[in-house]
Sequence to fold (803 residues):
Amino acid sequence: MDQRTLSLLELPKILTQLEALCACDLGRARVTHLKPSFHNDKVLRRLQETTQAKRFLETGKSIAFGGISDISSFLKNAQIGSMLEASELAATGKFLSGARNLKSSIENAEDTDGENYIILRGYAAFIFPQNAIEKSIGDAIDLDTAAVKDSASLRLLKARRGMASAQSEIQSKLRAMLTDVRVQPHLKDNFVTVREGRYCLPVRAESRNSVPGIVHDRSGSGGAFFIEPQAVVELNNRIRELALEEREAIREILQILSASVGAVAGELQSTLGACADLDFSFAKARLSLKHNALAPILGIAGFSLKNARHPLVENCVANDILLGTDFDALLLTGPNTGGKTVVLKTLGLLTLMAMCGLHISADEESSLCLPQRVFADIGDEQSIEQSLSTFSSHMKSIIGILNGAQKGDLVLFDEIGAGTDPDEGAALAKAILRALQRRGVLLLATTHYGELKQFALSAERFQNASVEFDQSTLRPTYRLQIGIPGASNAISIASRLGLPPELATRAKRYLGKARAETEIATQRLEESSRELREQTEETQQEREGVLRLQREFDERLQKLQQQRDAELSQAREEASRIVRQAQTEADAILRELRSAGKESKQTEIARGKLKNLRENTDLNRRGAETQKTASKEKEESREPSTSLPARPRISSRKLPTLKIGDAVRVSSLGKEGVLLSLRDDNSRVSVRIGAMKVEVPAADIAPLSNRNQSTPAPAFAGKVFGVPQEINLIGKRTDEAIVELEEYFDSAILSNAKTLRIIHGRGTGALKRAVHEYLKSTGTVASFELAPPEDGGEGATVVQFQV
Fold:
């Protein structure tokens, strides 16, 4: 693939962006050598590493490349035994630290499914930390200043301390000479200087023999000589000797460190390569984020790009680009500045980017094949030199494409056949396009020639396309329409730009009737297509709105169901708690019965407690469940419900000689009591014995013939006398009220009451409905009705008992 094609399709601009996103020279070197590849496996791996690095960055994880640089030349020198300079070793130390941190950041990153970063971890596996060498370099050399530390060796430390002591002694002696009255008159200036590494004093030229010592230099004016006084010559010699010792000590340190680096140069070369791969991968990931790009699907043949956008065009209109499935050649027509060349370049550039392993600026499910080569002849002045815009230059380029293009290649022509006579240009274009299509080449060409539109309608595996032009605004919309040829709209555009109307009318007459009708038909087809697309978009928006409402409804319904389930669960838990508490109390009562030894008053009381406990427990449990069920029904239907479970009606069909209130004997207990109620099937009856109410089989009771059946047993005389004629239930919960009403009815029946009044109040009506439901369910009530206005009206109910 030649460099000219890459430049025409602007791949170098993308690579420049990629290079700027690299963290170090290692990644930038990878970009420099990056070339498109048509090998499917190679490209797929490149795309996968880009995807993994992008996923790594999207999770907010940090990736560190600090200190990493290209030290390959240092490694080569160290490997052949050369000594590295302190600055080179400092760079090596920084690299070792940076590589170690980079490896750690990759390997310690959380990977939920174990495959998100498999390629990145594979690169990190080839980073070989050299902790001992890193520490040795860091101990010996200041990595920021590249200075060898005093502590690098004992020999170096002694040399530097000796030099510091000698320098201090020299400066002390020279400062004394500066103030010596015997020397001061001979000095040119009152300061100490260094010449050739030795400390000197500036002495007047005429007094050079007055200050004994060695002359090392002379001032530019000749007025002063720089003399090393004899008193410090020996000390200067000592400093020179110690400086040589220092140099040898440093050399020894550098040689040792260089040898240690050279010994692992092979592993460090591998580390360099891994760092370069990671830097390159993360640069590609940053480019993908910059362009909001995704990895394409690599197909076997053809292109299907969804909402493809040119990554270098700001606010580029997205288009679906199809080629190579239903048709192999796409002829793109439309007005100038309508976006035809942008579509052409978008297909070419995105293809080259994918071949380089870069994500493309298109939506998910976009797919493309990998051509062996991409050819392009694009004649806009922004991409090629002006000299190539002539017909001859275009033909030279096209002939080169004809000689090189093979099956599966992608060829892009901009304004094919332009620059010469329209008839001849159109004929040449048809011949060139047909020859390449029969060869198996995939083609996208832009043109203004009407003959090529007609050619695409009849030629096999050819298809028309256009960039949309809005006739109402006389402006291009830059939308690609496949299957619809485009009109040039030259006269309309000229009119918008200020062409006088009479000239536009004359131009239409010159155009010819048939051509004008064709242009008008094409424009109407474009307009119909635009209206259809707008309607489709509106329908899609409405559909999305309906789906959004459906999702909101489903979410709300799910919340209500969860709330209902929670309330039911709470009700069941409350019922279970009541049962557990009752069981505990029942166990205590049973223990009392067992300890009593024989039937006594104590056992009667205990049995009464047990019976009442069972009834209250059952009522409380049912009340809790009923309350929660009512709450659930209220939430679902928004209608209040406080009804309680229906009580069985009392019937005496099986016991015609007995009625409620008769004195009976319970054979199994050997006790006498009063009949309170019967079940509908007459299988069991309720009998009050003393202070206890028990339920026994109907066959277990018998009437007391020697007693007045209408008179309650003497045992109840104290309880039933003086029963009030009304009961006030206002302020009580429905379950509490029904329990109290039931006990009140028992006492009222035993006292031979004929009528009574129940005060339940108006309120929400829930208590009144519960009372009425109870009255309907008991067989002792002959009738009931709301009280007269003067006796409470709707706030009270009058009950008539059966005689």
Summary: The longest strand covers residues 462-470. The chain is about 50% helix and 15% strand. The radius of gyration is 52 Å.
